[in-house]
Design goal:
Chains A, B: This is Phosphoribosylformylglycinamidine synthase subunit PurS. Two copies of one chain form a homodimer. By secondary structure, the first copy, chain A, is α+β, with helices and mostly antiparallel strands. The first copy, chain A, has two helices and three strands.
C-alpha cells in the first residue's frame, strides 16, 4: 500500500526557500507570481494491507518524525 | 489563482534523503516500510486569472527553474 505525506510550513512561518524561488522566477521574467511556498512530499511504500491501519501508522510517523508540528502542517493520502 | 507543483525524483535515481527517512523510521520501530522517496511541493500564488494561461506559465517555470528534468518528474495542479 502506498501513502503520500505532504508537509507544508504553517501560514506565518518564514519560508526563505520559497522566497528564493520567488526571486529567481522574477529574475527569469515571470512577473505574475505573488507568493511561493515550498514544502515536502514523502512517498511511502508500506507493507500494511489495511487502509485504516496504514493511515494510523503514517499518522504516528508524522507526529514522531516526518513533520515538525510546531511549524509544519501535514496531510496524509493513502492509495490502495 | 493557486498552483501546486509536485517534483519527484525519477524512478531509479538514488534518493539518499528518502533512505535516511527509511532508516530513521526503522529505528523508531516502524517495521512495515518497504521504501521511502522524498520530493518537493511548490505552492504558487499567481496573478493570472485564466486557468489555461496559468498552467502554461507554470509549465514553463518547471522546465526553466523548478524541476531538473534530467532526474526529476513534475506534476502541476491548478486550483481555481
Amino acid at each position: 500500500m502506498k501513502a503520500k505525506v505532504f508537509v507544508t510550513l504553517k501560514p506565518g512561518v518564514l519560508d526563505p526557500q520559497g522566497k528564493a524561488i520567488e526571486h529567481a522566477l522574477g529574475g527569469l521574467g515571470f512577473d505574475g507570481v505573488n507568493e511561493v511556498r515550498q514544502g515536502k512530499v514523502i512517498e511511502l511504500d508500506l507493507a500494511a494491507e489495511d487502509e485504516a491501519k496504514a493511515e494510523s501508522e503514517v499518522e504516528a510517523m508524522c507526529r514522531k518524525l516526518l513533520a515538525n508540528t510546531v511549524i509544519e502542517n501535514y496531510r496524509i493520502e493513502i492509495e490502495a
